[in-house]
Write a structure and sequence with these properties.
about 290 residues, alpha/beta, Rossmann fold, 2 domains, 8 strands
Protein backbone atom coordinates (compact mmCIF):
# COMPACT_ATOMS: atom_id res chain seq x y z
CA UNK A 1 0.00 0.00 0.00
CA UNK A 2 1.21 3.54 -0.69
CA UNK A 3 2.68 5.49 2.20
CA UNK A 4 -0.02 7.91 3.34
CA UNK A 5 1.89 9.34 6.28
CA UNK A 6 1.70 13.14 6.33
CA UNK A 7 5.01 14.96 5.83
CA UNK A 8 6.67 16.23 8.98
CA UNK A 9 5.67 19.77 9.91
CA UNK A 10 8.62 22.12 9.20
CA UNK A 11 8.60 23.34 12.79
CA UNK A 12 8.82 19.80 14.12
CA UNK A 13 11.60 19.10 11.65
CA UNK A 14 13.41 22.21 12.88
CA UNK A 15 13.01 21.22 16.54
CA UNK A 16 14.31 17.72 15.84
CA UNK A 17 17.27 19.14 13.91
CA UNK A 18 18.13 21.53 16.77
CA UNK A 19 17.81 18.61 19.17
CA UNK A 20 20.24 16.51 17.15
CA UNK A 21 22.77 19.34 16.99
CA UNK A 22 22.48 19.99 20.71
CA UNK A 23 22.76 16.31 21.64
CA UNK A 24 25.89 15.90 19.52
CA UNK A 25 27.72 19.10 20.42
CA UNK A 26 26.26 20.69 23.56
CA UNK A 27 22.58 20.99 24.40
CA UNK A 28 19.23 22.12 23.08
CA UNK A 29 16.80 22.88 25.89
CA UNK A 30 13.32 24.31 26.09
CA UNK A 31 13.77 26.71 28.98
CA UNK A 32 10.15 27.88 29.12
CA UNK A 33 6.98 27.68 27.05
CA UNK A 34 8.24 30.33 24.60
CA UNK A 35 12.02 30.18 24.93
CA UNK A 36 14.73 27.73 23.94
CA UNK A 37 18.51 27.60 24.09
CA UNK A 38 20.94 25.93 21.71
CA UNK A 39 24.57 25.52 22.76
CA UNK A 40 27.31 24.21 20.48
CA UNK A 41 30.79 23.93 21.98
CA UNK A 42 33.48 24.52 19.38
CA UNK A 43 36.18 27.11 20.10
CA UNK A 44 37.40 29.57 22.74
CA UNK A 45 35.35 32.44 21.29
CA UNK A 46 31.66 32.32 22.19
CA UNK A 47 28.86 33.95 20.22
CA UNK A 48 25.88 34.70 22.46
CA UNK A 49 23.00 35.44 20.11
CA UNK A 50 19.37 36.39 20.66
CA UNK A 51 17.11 35.31 17.83
CA UNK A 52 13.52 34.55 16.91
CA UNK A 53 12.86 30.85 16.39
CA UNK A 54 9.95 31.79 14.12
CA UNK A 55 12.45 33.51 11.81
CA UNK A 56 13.83 30.14 10.78
CA UNK A 57 11.70 27.25 11.97
CA UNK A 58 9.46 27.20 8.89
CA UNK A 59 12.62 26.29 6.95
CA UNK A 60 12.73 22.94 8.73
CA UNK A 61 16.21 21.50 9.14
CA UNK A 62 17.62 24.22 6.87
CA UNK A 63 16.80 26.93 9.39
CA UNK A 64 19.71 27.80 11.66
CA UNK A 65 19.97 30.37 14.48
CA UNK A 66 21.77 33.66 14.13
CA UNK A 67 25.49 33.09 14.60
CA UNK A 68 25.60 29.52 13.30
CA UNK A 69 27.59 30.67 10.27
CA UNK A 70 30.31 31.88 12.66
CA UNK A 71 30.45 28.42 14.20
CA UNK A 72 30.93 26.77 10.81
CA UNK A 73 33.27 29.31 9.24
CA UNK A 74 35.29 30.48 12.25
CA UNK A 75 34.93 27.54 14.66
CA UNK A 76 33.36 29.77 17.30
CA UNK A 77 31.15 28.30 19.99
CA UNK A 78 27.51 29.37 19.99
CA UNK A 79 24.87 29.92 22.65
CA UNK A 80 21.65 30.98 20.95
CA UNK A 81 18.69 32.11 23.07
CA UNK A 82 15.56 31.74 20.94
CA UNK A 83 12.04 33.07 21.37
CA UNK A 84 8.82 31.82 19.83
CA UNK A 85 7.39 35.13 18.69
CA UNK A 86 8.00 38.65 19.94
CA UNK A 87 8.40 37.99 23.65
CA UNK A 88 11.15 40.55 24.29
CA UNK A 89 12.73 37.64 26.22
CA UNK A 90 11.10 38.93 29.39
CA UNK A 91 10.94 35.59 31.13
CA UNK A 92 12.32 34.63 34.52
CA UNK A 93 13.59 31.40 32.97
CA UNK A 94 15.87 33.33 30.60
CA UNK A 95 17.29 35.34 33.48
CA UNK A 96 17.75 32.17 35.53
CA UNK A 97 19.62 30.48 32.69
CA UNK A 98 22.01 33.39 32.20
CA UNK A 99 22.63 33.86 35.92
CA UNK A 100 23.21 30.14 36.34
CA UNK A 101 25.81 30.21 33.56
CA UNK A 102 27.55 33.11 35.29
CA UNK A 103 27.56 31.23 38.59
CA UNK A 104 29.04 28.16 36.87
CA UNK A 105 31.84 30.23 35.31
CA UNK A 106 30.55 29.45 31.81
CA UNK A 107 31.15 32.85 30.22
CA UNK A 108 34.45 33.32 32.06
CA UNK A 109 35.74 30.10 30.50
CA UNK A 110 35.87 31.73 27.05
CA UNK A 111 38.67 33.92 25.81
CA UNK A 112 36.24 36.22 24.02
CA UNK A 113 32.46 36.61 24.12
CA UNK A 114 30.57 38.28 21.27
CA UNK A 115 26.94 39.28 21.79
CA UNK A 116 24.87 39.71 18.62
CA UNK A 117 21.20 40.30 17.91
CA UNK A 118 18.98 41.23 14.99
CA UNK A 119 15.86 43.39 15.32
CA UNK A 120 14.25 45.53 18.03
CA UNK A 121 13.15 42.82 20.48
CA UNK A 122 16.24 40.65 20.16
CA UNK A 123 18.48 43.71 20.39
CA UNK A 124 16.60 44.89 23.49
CA UNK A 125 17.22 41.55 25.19
CA UNK A 126 20.84 41.23 24.07
CA UNK A 127 21.71 44.67 25.39
CA UNK A 128 20.21 43.83 28.78
CA UNK A 129 22.08 40.51 28.82
CA UNK A 130 25.43 42.30 28.50
CA UNK A 131 25.41 42.77 32.29
CA UNK A 132 25.98 39.03 32.63
CA UNK A 133 29.11 39.16 30.46
CA UNK A 134 31.33 42.14 31.40
CA UNK A 135 33.92 42.82 28.73
CA UNK A 136 31.87 41.39 25.86
CA UNK A 137 32.02 42.76 22.31
CA UNK A 138 28.44 43.66 21.31
CA UNK A 139 26.85 44.09 17.87
CA UNK A 140 23.16 45.00 17.68
CA UNK A 141 21.20 45.50 14.47
CA UNK A 142 18.21 47.87 14.65
CA UNK A 143 17.77 47.39 18.43
CA UNK A 144 15.17 48.99 20.68
CA UNK A 145 16.82 50.51 23.73
CA UNK A 146 13.43 51.04 25.37
CA UNK A 147 9.73 50.63 24.60
CA UNK A 148 7.83 52.30 27.44
CA UNK A 149 6.28 55.75 27.27
CA UNK A 150 8.54 56.73 30.17
CA UNK A 151 11.80 55.94 28.42
CA UNK A 152 10.79 56.13 24.74
CA UNK A 153 7.82 58.52 24.42
CA UNK A 154 8.57 58.91 20.71
CA UNK A 155 8.02 55.21 20.01
CA UNK A 156 4.82 54.21 18.23
CA UNK A 157 5.82 50.80 16.87
CA UNK A 158 5.49 48.72 20.03
CA UNK A 159 2.31 49.94 21.70
CA UNK A 160 0.99 46.40 22.08
CA UNK A 161 4.15 45.40 23.92
CA UNK A 162 3.85 48.17 26.47
CA UNK A 163 1.19 46.31 28.44
CA UNK A 164 3.89 43.74 29.29
CA UNK A 165 6.44 46.54 29.89
CA UNK A 166 9.66 44.98 28.53
CA UNK A 167 11.62 47.80 30.20
CA UNK A 168 10.78 46.55 33.71
CA UNK A 169 12.56 45.53 35.84
CA UNK A 170 15.73 47.48 35.09
CA UNK A 171 18.37 47.77 33.86
CA UNK A 172 17.68 49.12 30.41
CA UNK A 173 20.02 47.94 27.69
CA UNK A 174 22.06 51.15 27.53
CA UNK A 175 22.71 50.85 31.26
CA UNK A 176 23.64 47.16 31.06
CA UNK A 177 26.13 47.94 28.28
CA UNK A 178 28.21 50.08 30.62
CA UNK A 179 30.48 47.08 31.23
CA UNK A 180 30.79 46.00 27.57
CA UNK A 181 34.20 46.34 25.98
CA UNK A 182 32.58 47.80 22.86
CA UNK A 183 29.12 48.18 21.37
CA UNK A 184 28.22 48.74 17.73
CA UNK A 185 24.66 49.79 16.82
CA UNK A 186 23.48 49.40 13.21
CA UNK A 187 20.43 51.46 12.24
CA UNK A 188 18.67 53.42 9.51
CA UNK A 189 19.01 57.15 10.33
CA UNK A 190 16.19 57.95 7.90
CA UNK A 191 13.77 56.09 10.16
CA UNK A 192 12.95 58.54 12.99
CA UNK A 193 12.17 55.84 15.55
CA UNK A 194 15.33 53.89 14.77
CA UNK A 195 17.45 57.02 14.94
CA UNK A 196 15.91 57.99 18.28
CA UNK A 197 16.46 54.49 19.66
CA UNK A 198 20.09 54.47 18.50
CA UNK A 199 20.63 57.80 20.26
CA UNK A 200 19.61 56.21 23.58
CA UNK A 201 22.64 53.93 23.49
CA UNK A 202 25.18 56.14 25.25
CA UNK A 203 27.38 53.66 27.09
CA UNK A 204 31.15 54.17 26.78
CA UNK A 205 32.78 52.71 23.68
CA UNK A 206 29.50 52.74 21.73
CA UNK A 207 29.66 53.33 17.97
CA UNK A 208 26.52 54.04 15.92
CA UNK A 209 26.62 53.02 12.28
CA UNK A 210 23.90 54.70 10.23
CA UNK A 211 22.95 53.12 6.90
CA UNK A 212 20.43 55.48 5.27
CA UNK A 213 17.37 53.95 3.60
CA UNK A 214 18.40 50.43 4.61
CA UNK A 215 15.16 49.76 6.50
CA UNK A 216 14.13 46.13 6.80
CA UNK A 217 16.75 45.19 4.19
CA UNK A 218 19.32 45.62 6.95
CA UNK A 219 17.73 42.81 8.95
CA UNK A 220 17.80 40.46 5.96
CA UNK A 221 21.39 41.40 5.14
CA UNK A 222 22.62 41.01 8.71
CA UNK A 223 21.65 37.34 8.89
CA UNK A 224 23.74 36.36 5.86
CA UNK A 225 26.95 34.51 6.52
CA UNK A 226 28.81 36.64 3.98
CA UNK A 227 28.08 39.63 6.24
CA UNK A 228 27.99 38.24 9.76
CA UNK A 229 31.16 36.13 9.51
CA UNK A 230 33.51 39.00 8.61
CA UNK A 231 31.83 41.25 11.16
CA UNK A 232 32.33 38.62 13.87
CA UNK A 233 35.93 38.06 12.83
CA UNK A 234 36.62 41.77 13.27
CA UNK A 235 34.83 41.77 16.63
CA UNK A 236 36.97 38.91 17.83
CA UNK A 237 40.08 40.89 16.92
CA UNK A 238 38.66 44.05 18.52
CA UNK A 239 39.00 45.72 15.14
CA UNK A 240 35.40 46.47 14.13
CA UNK A 241 34.97 50.14 13.19
CA UNK A 242 32.02 51.98 11.59
CA UNK A 243 33.97 52.30 8.33
CA UNK A 244 34.70 48.56 8.22
CA UNK A 245 31.11 47.70 9.10
CA UNK A 246 29.80 49.83 6.23
CA UNK A 247 32.33 48.30 3.82
CA UNK A 248 31.03 44.82 4.68
CA UNK A 249 27.33 45.68 4.70
CA UNK A 250 26.97 47.90 1.64
CA UNK A 251 27.70 45.33 -1.10
CA UNK A 252 25.00 43.04 0.26
CA UNK A 253 22.54 45.91 0.69
CA UNK A 254 23.14 46.94 -2.91
CA UNK A 255 21.83 43.57 -4.01
CA UNK A 256 18.59 44.03 -2.07
CA UNK A 257 15.71 45.26 -4.30
CA UNK A 258 13.82 46.91 -1.42
CA UNK A 259 16.86 48.92 -0.38
CA UNK A 260 17.53 49.99 -3.97
CA UNK A 261 13.88 50.98 -4.43
CA UNK A 262 14.06 53.24 -1.35
CA UNK A 263 17.38 54.67 -2.51
CA UNK A 264 15.95 55.40 -5.97
CA UNK A 265 12.79 56.99 -4.54
CA UNK A 266 14.91 59.22 -2.30
CA UNK A 267 16.99 60.34 -5.27
CA UNK A 268 13.83 61.24 -7.22
CA UNK A 269 12.45 63.22 -4.26
CA UNK A 270 15.66 65.21 -4.22
CA UNK A 271 15.44 65.84 -7.96
CA UNK A 272 18.35 63.52 -8.83
CA UNK A 273 16.60 61.74 -11.68
CA UNK A 274 19.82 60.64 -13.37
CA UNK A 275 21.07 59.10 -10.12
CA UNK A 276 17.77 57.24 -9.70
CA UNK A 277 18.11 55.90 -13.23
CA UNK A 278 21.65 54.71 -12.49
CA UNK A 279 20.47 52.94 -9.35
CA UNK A 280 17.69 51.22 -11.29
CA UNK A 281 20.00 50.26 -14.15
CA UNK A 282 22.45 48.62 -11.76
CA UNK A 283 19.81 46.81 -9.71
CA UNK A 284 20.01 43.02 -9.88
CA UNK A 285 17.29 41.36 -11.90
CA UNK A 286 14.68 39.70 -9.77
CA UNK A 287 13.66 36.19 -10.60
CA UNK A 288 10.33 35.79 -12.35
CA UNK A 289 7.95 33.00 -11.38
Amino acid sequence: MPDTQAPLDPRQSWLRHMGRIGAAHGFFNRISSRHMALFVDEGDTLVLSFDRADRTWDQGDRGLPLGFDCLRALEFSLLSILSAGQTWFRDAAVETLLQGLVDDGFFASYKTVLIIANGPDCGHAAARAARFVPGAQVLLNRPAAATSATHAPFERRFKASRQHDPDTPPPLGPEALQTAASTTILFDPKNPSEAAQAALFRAPNTARVGLPYSGSALEHTFTKGEVLVPLARLMQGKALTPAKARKILRPSLRRDPDYLARLSAAAIRKGHVARAATINDNAPETATP
